[in-house]
Specification:
GO terms for molecular function: ubiquitin-protein transferase activity. InterPro entries: Ubox_domain, WD-SAM-U-box, Znf_RING/FYVE/PHD. Helix content is 44%, strand content 4%. The chain is mostly helical and 135 residues long. The protein has a two-stranded antiparallel sheet with strand order 1-2. β1 and β2 form a beta hairpin.
């Protein structure tokens, strides 16, 4: 089975990352990681920032087991490492990005709504749902 790739822009907020749970997201945001770029550029010290946030959360919720907090910190560090290892692809400027596929438009077409889509993406969309994705 082919690996599914997620396309994100460096300026995207962390909420766009697939598979990040609510608590992990809270830790990353409290550690002041706001965008994908923040995670990519933080090569040293991210573990300490994450641990400081987790230590603060421990004080707010002391009834949780130590294993929970250790697992949460480890999970957050793995998210940062996953983003740092992610393959960089060319930046797709918004006017050239299909809003359905979030990738380059190879054969752009304009719908009656005025939105542009890659022809193959909008044809597939309309076969499933007869409405423009933005109307």
């Amino acid at each position: 089975m082919a690996e599914r790739k997620q396309v994100v822009n460096m300026s995207d907020s962390l909420e766009v990352i697939d598979g990040v749970g609510e608590k992990s997201m809270e830790v990353l945001l409290r550690a002041n990681f706001k965008t994908i770029e923040d995670l990519k550029k933080e090569t040293v010290g991210y573990g300490q920032r994450i641990q400081q946030v987790v230590d603060g959360l421990k004080k707010e919720k002391p009834h949780f087991k130590a294993s929970y907090w250790n697992s949460l910190a480890l999970r957050c560090c793995k998210i940062v490492e996953r983003i740092q290892r992610a393959e960089a692809t060319p930046f797709v400027p918004s006017p050239y990005m299909c809003p359905i596929t979030k990738d380059w438009m190879m054969d752009p077409v304009v719908a009656p709504s005025g939105y542009s889509y890659d022809r193959s993406a909008i044809v597939e969309w309309l076969e499933e749902d007869c409405h423009d994705p933005f109307t």
